[in-house]
Amino acid sequence: MEREKIIAIVNDFLVNEFEVDGDEISNEANLKTTLGLDSLDYIDMVVVIESNFGVKLGEADFKKMVTFDDFYSTIQNKIAEKNA
Fold first, then answer.
1. In sequence order, which residues have a C-beta less than 8 Å from that of residue 11 and are 6 or more positions away?
2. Where does the Carrier domain start and stop, copy by copy (predicted)?
3. CB atoms within 10 A of CB 14
4. For the chain, which terminal residue's Cβ has fewer other Cβ atoms within 10 angstroms, N or C?
């Protein structure tokens, strides 16, 4: 899956399902600060990612993510691993 499509899908569900202000989403923005999600929201996000992309993200994956760019890259890498 192309990175642009991943970004579009992720940004869409963040805005529509997690009520994130789309203007605050940028590659360099801090993921955790911008999202302001609690632990239950992260569980919901894992479910949404799995249903949209067919991959699972774990706690270790989220700990490594700092920016939205990291988030997109992690999803892209998981998809590539799955399809390898």
1. 22, 25
2. 4-79
3. 22
4. C
